[in-house]
Design goal:
This protein is 53% helix and 12% strand. The protein has 9 helices and 5 strands. A 5-stranded parallel β-sheet has the order 2-3-1-4-5, sandwiched between helices. The longest helix is centred in the middle third of the chain and has 23 residues. The protein is globular.
Length: 190
């Protein structure tokens, strides 16, 4: 069973993904892939620098992900340019990583509009205030920056509209784990 796990930043997808992985699913993490494919001297890195300039390259030669993130989450056109560069590399690597595996959980912050073959879509939602607090703690950014990121993403209603199942992560981790276990048991293919 191939599951597309999605939801907004700070919703709790990583917690759910880790539970699926612990129960035998192969975890394919779009965020981890995006960091890897944008490392210095990769094709994606070169395209990003060509599109956005050397101002987003650190003295070490690495991409200044924080500065780039701040720039694109303030400007929808810049975000579209970055997504246009990154998505083709991320999707190709996600498909390659999942190939030949029976039980896969694909953790991605986007709707599966890319045609990635999946059997189910599982969405994790959470109130925006909780998401912002989680993003601030995780990324070390301000509340204003966290809210800009949330505002740049798809609304929960759109995620839910495209879901086979929805997990509401309203702060009680134990309840989230119990709810996720139901789908793990139901969707695991022996």
């Amino acid at each position: 069973m191939r599951i597309w796990l999605t939801g907004g930043s700070g919703s709790g997808k990583s917690v759910v993904a880790a539970l699926f992985e612990k129960r035998g699913f192969l975890l394919v993490d779009a965020d981890a892939i995006s960091r890897k494919i944008a490392e210095k001297n990769t094709a994606a890195f070169r395209e990003i620098v060509a599109a956005f300039g050397e101002a987003f390259v650190l003295p070490s030669g690495d991409l200044d992900r924080r500065a780039l993130g701040n720039a694109v989450f303030e400007d929808a056109e810049k975000l579209a340019v970055l997504n246009g560069i990154m998505h083709k590399y991320i999707i190709a690597e996600m498909c390659r990583a999942a190939e030949g595996n029976k039980n896969v959980i694909m953790d991605a912050p986007l709707l599966n509009t890319f045609g990635v073959p999946c059997d189910k879509t599982l969405v994790v939602t959470a109130p925006e205030c909780m998401r912002a607090a989680r993003i601030m703690q995780r990324d070390g950014i301000t509340e204003e920056e966290a809210m800009r990121r949330i505002s740049a993403q798809v609304r929960d209603a759109e995620y839910i509209q495209n879901a086979d199942a929805v997990l509401q992560n309203d702060g009680d981790r134990a309840a989230l784990e119990v709810a996720a276990e139901k789908y793990i048991k139901e969707w695991y293919t022996a």
